[in-house]
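Below is one protein, fold included:
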Amino acid sequence: MSARADKSEDGSQKHGSRTTQLVNKRKIKHMKQPLIKQIPVLIPAGNKAIHGSTLHRVLLGILHNTPENIAADLNGLISSRDNYELARLSFTTTRSTLIAKTQMSRETIRIARDIVKQYLGNEYNINWDITGMVGSIALPTSPEELSNVALGFKAYFTAHPEHENVPLQITAAKLQILYDDLVAAENAVLTDQETVDTLRIVRDEKADRLYKRLRSCVDELNLLMGPLDPRWKSFGFNLPGAEETPDVPTNFAAVLIGPTTSAMKWDAAARATYYRVWKRVIGVDAEPVAVGSPGDIDFNLENLPAGSTIEIYVSAVNNGGESQLSEKITIVTH
């Protein structure tokens, strides 16, 4: 256990002079701005930038990334995203319509084929070619093949109206309607697909525009504020001078070295300036409570309540923030 750490009023140890040594020895990695081109992230980022620009434009002298300019790019993205999503919904409907008409057409052609078998035979022969079934009388599956065969059977029944079956709606006129409906459904899918593709391009262009606007906002603020100015957070940005949040401490271990004292240690976490130790007494604390902030990677937690079950955690801290809590360790005092 470390002999250099000081103790807090509750008996826990505080980080001491070694903290400065740790900072000097490690390579500092500063905060990056949370800017990515994913639309679910860009839209709230745009709203936060508008908020910050509204609050500070006058005092900071913001000229280029005003609330109005940011809002114009944000609204452009929202509008283009909505148009794209509506087009996708329409495309889903027209595609479902084509699938339904394809299935219906296949069933109609199956009935027509079975009727014509009485006259042309149960196996393919050259006489079947007029129906559009060339080389085989197997039922086609694609809309393109089915529409071609529908025209063929229309030609057959036009030439042989005596073979039509009106009760089953297998007539030249019905097959023409079948063909027209199928082609219309195919064309609707092609049209909607083109619309979706076009609106996707527009949406992505608007997303890129807002992304560049936010990058421009960061660049302008770099000229107007210091790297640790807290007003960065009003814009939804990280403080560029702050360090990147540390990693979570790993290999955390704790053992009792007395009835109410626990000794613990862990591996050094990347970018940690110091650590924070947490405890939760089961049946007493609703959430973990911070009880110490050592600068070393070992710690003695003293004066624990006797006869208690206690969960212990550790986190890593620097001026950029704090890591998540480590995995918990449960101890039972005597």
About this structure: The chain has two domains: 6-29+246-332, 30-242. Helices lie at 18-25, 39-60, 67-120, 143-159, 172-224.
